[in-house]
Amino acid sequence: MIDLNNLTIEKAHNNIKTGKYTSVDLAKAYLNEIEKKDKDIHAYLEVYDDVIQQAQQADIRFKNGNFTKLTGIPFAIKDNILVKGKIVSSASKILENYHASYDATAIEKLKNAGAVFIGRTNMDEFALGGSTEKSAFGVTKNPHDLNRVPGGTSGGSAASVASNTSLVALGSDTGGSVRQPSAFCGVVGLKPSYGSVSRYGLMAAVSSFDQIGPIGKTVSDVQIVFETIKGKDIHDGTTISDDTYEKVRIGNKKPIVGIPSFFMNMGGIKKEVLDNFKKCIEKFKELGFEVIDIDLPNASYALPAYYIVNFAEVSSNLSRFDGVKYGLHKDGKDIIGDYFETRGYGFGKEARRRILLGTYVLSSGYYDAYYNRANLLRQVITNDFIYAFKKVDIIITPTTPSPAFKIGEKNNDPVSMYLEDIFTVTANLTGLPAMSIPSGSVNIEGKDLPLGIQVTARHGDENTLFEFGKVFLGEN
Amino acid sequence: MITKQEIEKLANLARIKVNQDEIDSLASDIGSILSYVDEIKKVNMNIDSKANIGAINNVFREDKSISSTPETIQAIMNESPDREGDFIAVKKIISQD
Questions:
Q1: Closest residue of B to A304, CA-based?
Q2: Which of A316, A414, B53, B59 has the most Cβ atoms closer than 10 angstroms to its Cβ?
Q3: pLDDT tens for residues A437-459?
Q4: Are residues A304 and B91, on separate chains, in Cβ contact within 8 Å?
Q5: Which residues of A touch B97 (CB under 8 A)?
Q6: What is the pLDDT of residues A91-122, one digit of tens each?
Q7: What pLDDT score does B62 carry?
Q8: Is residue B48 pLDDT above 70, yes or no?
Q9: Dihedral sign computed on CA atoms, order A153, A154, A160, A162
């Protein structure tokens, strides 16, 4: 029996390398776990039929000596990242039977490294939501309490890592979609600096916010995956290289920690989250970190500015689904009628709502008041962070204002669902890298629900996130 | 805040069919979302300026295809709902009346 609960990439790699077990054994162990657990959790929309063949290929690479740390490592992939020849649906009826015609750059890099793809994971349709309840194909449950959501939009990926039905996973993060489910499920999730990881082959939600990000049980696992998938890509003109941003560090030995206390105390944050965060600040100090209070004067405008840009870009990006080029087609009385029928039937409620909102904020007469103003605010908030990074190396907040909420709890109030993203959207607005790491749990109704803290660093400085995360979690 | 007529107009612009019984809930949801994001109107700033977002500007490459092979073209064509040979088929755009 392989101990999946305490498995890391490093351990699995060493065990395969020394012949303790094979990639095929490991793949079988995960398939077995899926068989046992996933009918309750529903992290996967599809388990691929060629997992064992992929693992056999990985074992051949070990035999031939051309292996990497990721050879034979089982991955779960969010259903909006293209794997050539496989169905990829963004959990939408409009793409239910769509086959990817090419590999996303991140997938190509993982394939070159010899990774094994177990299947595609559930998400909010087109990455619009915060709970994975907005999937067209059923909700995913939180492995820590099956009555609660796993978070979203990468809820399937986070739930799969947390329930040991994959060792690591890829998600995508537009406003917190990797970090918030990682916090709710008690795992580590990274939103890289904008441009670090190519968006080629990631279905566009908000092109100026989207980043593919890894989810794992340890900071080291997340780091190994990130270092494999990052890099400049000819297919994505917004990708950056290692020297795009200057490397700066203020703290001599350890990074200096900034806490935006005012932002934290503006209300709407659950007491158990604040209590946990206070304990974390004590722990930072015990671990020898210098902790400084910082000000982010415009941070409270981040959420409304984020959503305006989100609506605008989502409505533009989803205009490509017209029932002509690919995906679902529904017949109307003429070609325009085809569009109305296809889009009306194919898009779920949240997607339709955001398309209408985007159409509104981009329409003439409202453009300056909403979209242009939101983009200017984006600049103002980015400047606030850059100013704060003159005094500190990392900025820490809770990842979410509450632990995982109950399935259905926020269904009738879209604004309360949006407020979940209060701490996470700033990293997408500013393009800064941010990572959620587990910070303990709180017992509610007899269940231990995980909590997370979010660490944000300067542009291009993921390394400081990894350094801090390993010290905080006691990883070597 | 937002009327049913405005919702119908937006749905028409966005080419989305919405059912009459859905319009009420859309109007109320969209109304409350808009009143929330209206928060940003309180910020005092010069809105004549243009924002400069992102670290990368003017990325150029040769104007030629870098990824299409006959196989990818066929794979893409195979995903179209209706095709005739190497063309995607749609309904007639010009009618007699």
A1: B37
A2: A414
A3: 999 999 999 999 999 999 999 99
A4: no
A5: none
A6: 999 999 999 999 999 999 999 999 999 999 99
A7: 87
A8: no
A9: negative
Q: Does the beta-carbon distance from B55 to A459 stay under 8 Å?
A: yes
B44, exposed or middle or buried, with CB in 10 Å at 0-12, 13-18, 19+? Answer: exposed
Query: With contacts defined as CB-CB under 8 Å, which chain A residues touch B9?
Result: none
Q: Given pLDDT bands bounded at 50, 70 and 90, which one contains residue B67?
A: confident
In angstroms, what CA-CA distances link A248 with A291, A457, A463? 18, 11, 12
User: If contacts are CB pairs under 8 Å, which of residues 10-49 in chain B contact chain A?
Assistant: 10-11, 13-18, 26, 29-30, 32-34, 36-41, 43, 45, 47, 49
A163 is written with which tokens?
Answer: 């329930």
Each residue's pLDDT tens digit, A39-66: 999 999 999 999 999 999 999 999 999 9
User: With an 8 Å Cβ cutoff, are B76 and A101 in contact?
Assistant: yes
Using a cut of 0.90, tell me whether the model's pTM lies above it. Answer: yes
Nearest residue to A403 (alpha-carbon basis) of A275, A304, A272: A272
Name the phi and psi angles at B80, rounded to 5: -75, 140
Could you say which residues of chain A have pLDDT below 50?
A: none
Tokens representing residue A260 in the block: 């935006």
Q: What percent of chain A has pLDDT over 90?
A: 94
Q: Do B56 and A238 touch (CB under 8 A)?
A: yes
Taking the C-alpha atoms of residue A254 and residue A132, their distance in angstroms, rounded to an integer, is 37
Alpha-carbon gap: A388 to the closest alpha carbon of chain B (Å): 18
Chain B hits for A329, Cβ within 8 Å: 81-82
Give CA separation, A157 vs A89, A174, A179, A189, A467, in Å. Answer: 15, 15, 11, 10, 24
By Cβ distance, the residue of B40, B75, B79 closest to A304 is B40
User: Residue A279 and residue A396: Cα distance in Å, rounded?
Assistant: 13
Q: Can you tell me the ipTM of this complex?
A: 0.93
- Considering only CB atoms, A240 lies closest to which of B52, B56, B93, namely B56
Alpha carbon of A385: minimum distance to chain B alpha carbons (Å)? 14
Q: Which of A323, A328, A337, A341 is nearest to B95 (CA)?
A: A337
DSSP A238-283: T---TTSS-----SSSSPPEEE-HHHHTSS---HHHHHHHHHHHHH
C-alpha separations of B57 from A281, A323, A446, B54, B60 in Å: 39, 34, 53, 8, 9
Residue B57's closest chain A neighbor by CA?
Answer: A238
Task: Find the closest chain B residue to A349 by CA distance.
Answer: B26
For residue A136, the one-letter residue type is: A
